[in-house]
């Protein structure tokens, strides 16, 4: 499996190819803390590859998230790795070391209704998106999550942060927020 690693060049113009030990495995999600990188496998359920040698990527080990599902989203922040599968129920898996993983259910998640379709960590906040009913989930620590309504009831496809603004693709709309921790009620909440 291959992924591209940015060089130390500040403009990230120069990229180098890096390989995980399982050739033929798609990398569906990644997260990085300090010198540790975790790459989720898109071919083998619940499998990941990790390295602490990012310069040469020659010392890879494998592990499992403890669930038989492919992880499609990864983020890191506040000293925590967070990965999410794109299948119901909406659950993230967290770890401080990439070895021991803890499942954390999103508020209101059931076995049939939702999954995590987007995930990021920016500005001191984890933000996840729901795959079916226009919910955001926010957390400052990656452990305790709060559900927040998006302006439309649709899939949250992606979430980005820049210039003090969260921007999300929600269905066919774009949603923005300056602070997802204290959002005012969405138009859906006003009835």
Determine the N-to-C terminus distance: 49 Å
Fraction of residues in β-strands: over 45%
- What kind of sheet is the major sheet? 4 strands, antiparallel
The averaged pLDDT comes out at 79
Using only C-alpha atoms, the radius of gyration works out to 17 Å
Q: What is the helical fraction, as a range of percent?
A: under 10%
The sequence of SSEs as H and E is EEEEEEEEEEEEEEEEE
Structure class: mainly beta
**Count of DSSP strands:** 17
**Outline type:** globular
Q: How many helix segments?
A: 0
**How are the strands of the largest sheet arranged?**
3-4-5-6
Keywords:
4-stranded antiparallel beta sheet, mainly beta, disordered N terminus, single chain, 191 residues, disordered C terminus
